[in-house]
């Protein structure tokens, strides 16, 4: 999730709501300062990894519930998205991505992210990276999608291949 600014990082005045760029924003009331917190989304790449005819879904070590999703990672400064997704597949699964074909882009509002999703056929032996706890393999014809962000990318990829995937119910997230 994004940081929520309460005070101006330039002059320390309390930020106030103001319409900027067609949206409500937090902004410094001092016109000399002019700071506006734009709260732009963070770009994230995601991979529908196809390996030996199956889709690989992974569970992050930080997730407190047992849920499997696409391999994802932040787009680094000066990185090209299709190269970033191949890097993430190698880092997280130890697999060599052959190509990265764009599926689409999706908003993940809860985390304020823009998901840029790719299909990545991959080869090699799965070796989990430090961020993943486990993975599962799913035959495309049996895959189901979750109705948000990366799940919609999986749905769109499956539909483009002639499958009719059904949604799953998301597990209840623990409250903090």
From TrEMBL:
One of its GO terms (molecular function) is metal ion binding. One of its GO terms (cellular component) is cytosol. InterPro entries: NAD-cap_RNA_hydrolase_NudC (IPR050241), NUDIX_hydrolase-like_dom_sf (IPR015797), NUDIX_hydrolase_CS (IPR020084), NUDIX_hydrolase_dom (IPR000086). PROSITE patterns: NUDIX, NUDIX_BOX. It catalyses: a 5'-end NAD(+)-phospho-ribonucleoside in mRNA + H2O = a 5'-end phospho-adenosine-phospho-ribonucleoside in mRNA + beta-nicotinamide D-ribonucleotide + 2 H(+). Its cofactor is Mg(2+); Zn(2+). It comes from the Bacteria. One of its GO terms (biological process) is NADP+ catabolic process. Residues 40-160 form the Nudix hydrolase domain. Gene3D superfamilies: Nucleoside Triphosphate Pyrophosphohydrolase. The keyword Metal-binding applies. Keywords: Hydrolase, Magnesium, Metal-binding. Belongs to the Nudix hydrolase family. NudC subfamily. This is NUDIX domain-containing protein. It comes from Sinimarinibacterium flocculans. The lineage of its organism: Bacteria, Pseudomonadati, Pseudomonadota, Gammaproteobacteria, Nevskiales.
